[in-house]
Design goal:
alpha/beta, 199 residues, two-stranded antiparallel sheet, Dna Topoisomerase Vi A Subunit, Chain: A, domain 2, globular, Helicase, Ruva Protein, domain 3
């Protein structure tokens, strides 16, 4: 028994269900929402409802969009022959901020994780295979995180795509710009050495 009205308890529970939000933070957020003027609070609720109603996956790349297809897939300025495979929609934003990549994307909406019961049918792998098998793709860049699950997913996909004779590459990983070798772990140094390039 919290001593709060049940509707406030419910609001706190909703906030607490968000990733990275603990019970205390959920309480602060709930009280903040209640302190907002009515029009702001209802605008906040409307924004959530509208996003849930209008946003869906692009049928081509599986990124989030509120149009029939996303702006990247429909852009005539993008190189449609290069596909960058990422785990989540937020990863697309990271690449777009760099302004260095001009190809298109494929969003998996997860990575293979046997420990968490996530298999090939649970993420958008068949859609990627269909895109590559349709032709017109010269390179697929694996841009999943450099951890066990990201590496496993990249290896699995590279084997799946091998019969289509497309170039499959993996992002280079190594020492971050501005860091100090003294504090770099062995795994990062090993990756940096294996991914070295000619100057």
């Amino acid at each position: 028994m919290s001593g709060f009205p049940s509707s406030l308890d419910n609001l706190i529970d909703r906030f607490a269900s968000l990733p990275g939000v603990g019970r205390k933070s959920a309480q602060r957020l709930a009280f903040h929402v209640l302190s907002l003027p009515d029009e702001e609070a209802f605008a906040f609720a409307d924004a959530i409802s509208e996003a849930k109603r209008s946003i869906h996956r692009c049928p081509v790349c599986q990124n989030l969009t509120d149009d029939e297809q996303c702006a990247i897939c429909t852009s005539a300025k993008r190189d449609q022959s290069t596909i960058c495979v990422v785990a989540q929609p937020r990863d697309v934003l990271s690449f777009e901020r760099s302004r260095e990549y001009n190809g298109v994307y494929h969003v998996l909406h997860g990575v293979l994780s046997p420990m968490n019961h996530v298999g090939p049918d649970d993420i958008c792998i068949k859609e990627l295979v269909a895109r590559v098998s349709a032709g017109g793709v010269s390179e697929v860049i694996m841009a999943t995180n450099p951890d066990t699950e990201g590496d496993t997913t990249a290896m699995y996909l590279s084997r799946l795509l091998k019969p289509f004779e497309v170039k499959v590459t993996r992002l280079a990983y190594g020492i971050p710009v501005g860091s100090n070798l003294e504090f770099t772990d062995e795994a990062t140094l090993t990756r940096a050495l294996s991914g070295r390039i000619e100057m």
